[in-house]
Amino acid sequence: MDADDRTGPVTVDTTTGTATSHSIATLSPGTHDVDAMCSGDPNYQGDKAMTLKQTALEEDGVLAGYRADLDRERLGLGLTVFLSLKVEHSRTTSQVVEEALKAIDHVVACHVVSGDADFFVELAVPDLSAFEKVLIDQILAIGPVRDARSTFCIRTVIDRGPLPLNSWPAPRA
């Protein structure tokens, strides 16, 4: 659609934040009635309600931050690898491993887990060769790491999603 075509009703899909009719240059996610917002309708409450919800989430410490979701493929990071790490156990082991993993650029998530592994690590790398280099030069070089098992992502079905907030108390008014 042409960015200058601003006639007719405009609605926004609150899941994706995209216009479902005529587009407008910038749309805020969660906006339901873009025409009312853009026309200066004094009765329009959408942005105010969204701001109140956002403020309540921030004040309650539930909203941990903001981020842009980047396309890994378009950034040349087309291979996602999940790595299960076993480490030797001592008082300082976990902290040593955590700090070392935080310093590796390709590590995008790290979890301390129970079960067969001690850490579950997600990496975003360009290809298998890059993964091998990160694994050998950086991860296996972490002293307490005793075993590493990798699982390669074939296809991502869900990358992010809504959290089940049914048990969370309603935001304050």
How many DSSP H or I helices? 4
Strand order of the largest sheet: 4-5-3-6
Distance between the termini: 39 Å
Shape, please? extended
Percentage of residues in DSSP E strands: 15-25%
Order of SSEs: EEHHEHEEHE
Question: How would you describe what is shown here?
Answer:
24% of the residues lie in helices and 20% in strands. It has 173 residues and is of the alpha+beta class. A four-stranded antiparallel β-sheet has the order 4-5-3-6. A two-stranded antiparallel sheet has the order 1-2. Strand 1 (12-13) and strand 2 form a beta hairpin. The chain is extended and about 60 Å long.
Task: Summarize the model shown.
The chain has helices at residues 34-39, 46-59, 93-102, 128-139; strands at residues 12-13, 18-19, 79-87, 107-112, 119-125, 145-152. By secondary structure, it is α+β, with helices and mostly antiparallel strands. A hairpin with a 4-residue loop joins strand 1 and strand 2.
Architecture blueprint of SSEs:
Blueprint: E1 12-13, E2 18-19, H1 34-39, H2 46-59, E3 79-87, H3 93-102, E4 107-112, E5 119-125, H4 128-139, E6 145-152
Antiparallel strand pairs: 1-2, 3-5, 3-6, 4-5
